[in-house]
Amino acid sequence: MKIVLLGRGGEGVLYLSRLIIKSFDGQNILSSEIHGMAKKGGLVEVHLKIGDYKSPTIGYKKADLVVLLNNSLKKLAYLYSQNIIFLSEKEQEYILKSNPKMLNIYMFAKLAKVLNIDYQKAISLINKNDAEFFNKGFNNDIQ
Amino acid sequence: MLAKFVFFAKSIFMIEILSGNEAIAQALLESNVRFASAYPGTPSSEILRYGLYLKSKYNLNAYIEWSINEKVALEEALSASFTGIDSAFFCKQVGLNVALDPLMSASLVGTQGAFVVVAADDPGPYSSQTEQDSRMLALFAKIPVFDPSDIKEAYDFSKKAVELSRTYKLPVMLRTTTRISHGRQNIVVQDNIENITLNAEFKKDPARFAATPKLRFILHKKLNEKLFSIASKNSLKFDFFGNILLVSSGLVYSNLYELIQEHKLQDKVTLAKADMPYPLPNIDLSRFEKAIAIEETYPLIELQLNTQGRRNNIVPKEGELSMDVCEQILYNIGVLDSFVPVNIDFKDKPPSLCPGCAHRSAFFEIKQVYSDAIFAGDIGCYTLGVNLGVTDTVFCMGASVSFAFGFNKAFKLSNKNHHVVAIIGDSTFFHTGLSALIDAIHNNAKFLLVILDNSTVAMTGNQKTLSSPVNSLGEAVKPISIEKIVRNLDIGFLEIVDPYDFKKSIEVLKQSKDYIEKNSSIAVIIFRHLCVNTDEGLKNNPIIKVFVDNDCKGCKLCIDEFECQSLIFNEDTKQVEIDRKTCIDCAQCIYSCPFGSIKVLK
Ligand code: SF4
Ligand code: SF4
User: Fold this and answer.
1) Chain A residues lying within 8 Å of B327, measured CB to CB
2) How confident is the model at residue B602 (pLDDT cuts 50, 70, 90)?
3) Which of B5, B180, B314, B416 measures 20 to 30 Å from B390, CA to CA?
4) Do A60 and B258 touch (CB under 8 A)?
5) Angle between helices B100-109 and B70-82 (to 10 degrees)
6) Residue B133 near residue B199 (C-beta atoms within 8 A)
7) How would you write B443-509 as a 3-class SS string?
8) Fold annotation for B358-533
9) Fold exhibited by the domain B546-600
10) In CATH, which of 3.90.1110.10, 3.40.50.970, 3.20.20.70, 3.40.50.1000 is domain B4-233?
């Protein structure tokens, strides 16, 4: 499976990628990260390949899934795949108002659901205090 | 890090998911490297950081630390290897330029213990000023170079590099690239690194270590013999069975391998791989219809084996050889039947300093007072001063000071008076700015030197600087004071100011201008404020909430002139508003609205 994660510096893209990698523990993992020179607000792009691959990078149109943490990057996301997970305006607004740091946790939970990652396994990877937002994402609570 | 234990015959191994940089540090320490020196630079910085982590994890008797610059770092590690201690030096590709002088001699003189040079290239480039190929510098310095094609190989080849260096008493390079250094893979590593007995000895041998030119000729001859021996044992690995030969190394090999499998081209091409792309022996490739080298970023294999590639425009001469580019190449040489190039209609906003970064405040203040100056910038986060119109040149580490010197003298020769401002960060000042300043002072140059001191190497991940009273592992070291150095250089004007203090900063800048004119000499201002991208910096930052009032005219002066990412223009209301997601409540933007519409929330 080939997954591209897109977001901006400060949104926790790299942490999200570590969580995904850990959920596929035991399988072959290859990934590659690009973070440009801007710290906050700069583009962060992670390619993740799970399975029998040789190169850690993913070509345009070749991703199975794009995980989008920042909707300003939608155009870039479509270059990789038509299959994109992103946050609705409602979800964004809710998270940013209550706890912007939970953006990646919420997304991880959404993704866990889509990728059929076992609930117990996924929640065991995160900090206990983050469980509230994890559950919200897993159960699609914010509509 | 998740670890799984695997039991082999004797030692215990575990599976870890490591980045390329972490894998390199792990392998070098497992191979008994106990001295490592480096200067931070993307994408190489995490190698030393992980080395430090392993050192404290296993309580290793080892010296692992950041150095003042790459030349010094290489020399520190190299001389340790002269005593028989296995050593290593890490840098980004442009850092190797700085360290090239000692490296050129190191190959001739040779080493005693192992000495591994890890150079991290940045095809693209993503965060560098050049996309040079360090493998070419291996050829130039006449040292062998390994080029790993994935993270596992970065680990394996690091070990091979140590062994080869030990065997031939020759520096050996490991070249990595952004994709490898910042890639991750599950690999099998040792579950423990044990301390070894170190016994430094220096056997005096002036014919080697202090060789005169005549003796250097003999050393050169010996070096060539070593290289011949290494090359004769080196070879290519061949995969697949087509008539067209593609020769590659490094990450590009992995891209090609995967594309060949994806498009089932196994009977059309043969893929050859060089683990060590220099030195290569003569290899007969005449059984193939044609041979094409596809490698990043210069034609190293191509020139040695005299294949096609960059020289006849089959391979692009610049840029990363990404999956897409490799696919295009396969199509261009006729092995792939169809290829639809992707129309890249995405353009991201240019990079920008963090919201609340004190560099931005300093830039804004500098341009209020020195509006007509030439701004010689330098390498660091503050390169982004270009967004505020306060950076006219960016070259290489330390060049701001020497450029200011050159500009000033050139205008003087032409009987013109032009304000010149050099802008440099604290770590870059130590790196190479200081020597340029000494020269400028000695030769009566006249300009303003601004040192942006945030007490960290911010751009590369907040490594410590020489002004820190503790080393990277928290042990006491002697802090080096920038102001003490400058003061001792007999600078008549030295002021230290927090750029968050707008009024004081403007005042100091005005005074500096008067001083420079009156005394026709150099003035120095140190703008000191912690980087707000560190926990300590953010914790200590003042918190003052601001808002944009309803009288905002929508002139966007604040956005254009101050350029904080958290000031956003609302296309519906045609007014500016604060992006609460990213704003850190520093209130530095209030000075940027000439109508006072950005107000403190009481
Ligand atoms: S990392 Fe620090 S120095 Fe760099 S832009 Fe951000 S706040 Fe400024
Ligand atoms: S207060 Fe102003 S300058 Fe500071 S981060 Fe917010 S918008 Fe940017």
Assistant:
1) 59
2) confident
3) B416
4) no
5) 20
6) no
7) CCCCCEEEEEECCCECCCCCECCCCCCECCCCCECCCCCHHHHHHHCCCCEEEEECCCCHHHHHHHH
8) Rossmann fold (3.40.50)
9) Alpha-Beta Plaits (3.30.70)
10) 3.40.50.970
Q: What burial class does residue B340 get, using C-beta atoms within 10 Å of its C-beta: 0-12 exposed, 13-18 middle, 19+ buried?
A: exposed
Taking the CA of B529 as reference, the closest ligand is 1
User: What is the pLDDT at residue B1?
Assistant: 44
Task: Name the H helices within B130-281.
Answer: 134-141, 151-168, 178-181, 206-209, 213-233, 250-262
Q: How far is the CA of A82 from the centre of ligand 1 (A)?
A: 35
A11 contacts in chain B (CB < 8 Å): none
Tens digit of each residue's pLDDT (9 = 90 or more) over B412-434: 999 999 999 999 999 999 999 99
Q: Are B295 and B277 in contact (CB under 8 A)?
A: yes
Rounded Cα–Cα distance for residues B253 and B258 (Å): 9
Can you tell me the distance from the alpha carbon of B461 to that of B459, in angstroms, rounded to the nearest whole number? 6
Domain locations in chain B as residue ranges: 4-233, 237-332, 358-533, 546-600
B236/chain A closest Cα distance in angstroms: 18
Q: In the CATH hierarchy, which fold is given to the domain comprising B237-332? A: Rossmann fold (3.40.50)
Cα A31 to ligand 1 centre (Å): 27
Q: Which amino acid is at B184?
A: R
C-alpha count within 13 angstroms, C-beta hemisphere, residue A2:
17
Tell me the percentage of chain B whose pLDDT exceeds 70. Answer: 98
Q: Is the pLDDT score of B10 beyond 80?
A: no
Residue of A28, A33, A40, A44 for testing the chain B interface, max B β-carbons within 10 Å: A40
Q: How far is the CA of B589 from the centre of ligand 1 (A)?
A: 16
A-proximal residues of B, 49-78, CB under 8 Å = none
From B42, B45, B127, B357, mutation site for ligand 1 pocket: most ligand atoms within 8 A of C-beta = B357
Q: Which residues of A44-62 are buried (b: 16+ CB within 10 A; e: fewer)?
A: bbbbbbbeebbbbbbbbeb
User: Mutate which of B45, B127, B352, B353 to test ligand 1's pocket (most atoms within 8 Å of Cβ)?
Assistant: B353
Tokens in use for B33?
């490297």
Identical fold between B358-533 and B546-600: no
Residue B4's pLDDT band, with cuts at 50, 70 and 90, is: low
**3-class SS of residue A12:** coil
Distance from C-alpha of B111 to C-alpha of B78, rounded to nearest angstrom: 7
Burial class (CB in 10 A: 0-12, 13-18, 19+), A14: middle
End-to-end CA distance of chain A: 29
| pLDDT tens sequence across B90-109 | 999 999 999 999 999 999 99
Residue whose CB lies within 8 A of the most ligand 2 atoms, among B560, B564, B591, B599, for a mutation test: B564
pLDDT digits (tens, 9 = 90+) for B31-47: 999 999 999 999 999 99
* Atom 7 (ligand 1) nearest CA: B357
DSSP string, B1-26: ---EEEE-SSSEEEEEEEEHHHHHHH
Section A49-77 average pLDDT:
96
pLDDT in the model for residue A39: 78
The one-letter code for the residue type at B241 is F
- Judged by its nearest atom, the ligand closest to the C-alpha of residue B538 is 1
Residue B86's pLDDT is what? 98
Confidence of residue B349 (pLDDT cuts 50, 70, 90): confident
Whether B459 and A37 lie within 8 Å, measured CB to CB = yes
Please identify among residues 47-106 of chain A the ones whose CB lies closer than 8 Å to any CB of chain B: 53-62, 73, 75-76, 79, 96, 100
What tokens does A77 get? 């996301």
Residues with a CB atom less than 6 Å from ligand 1 = A 39; B 353-354, 357, 359, 381, 454, 458-459, 531-533
Average pLDDT over every residue of B531-539? 94
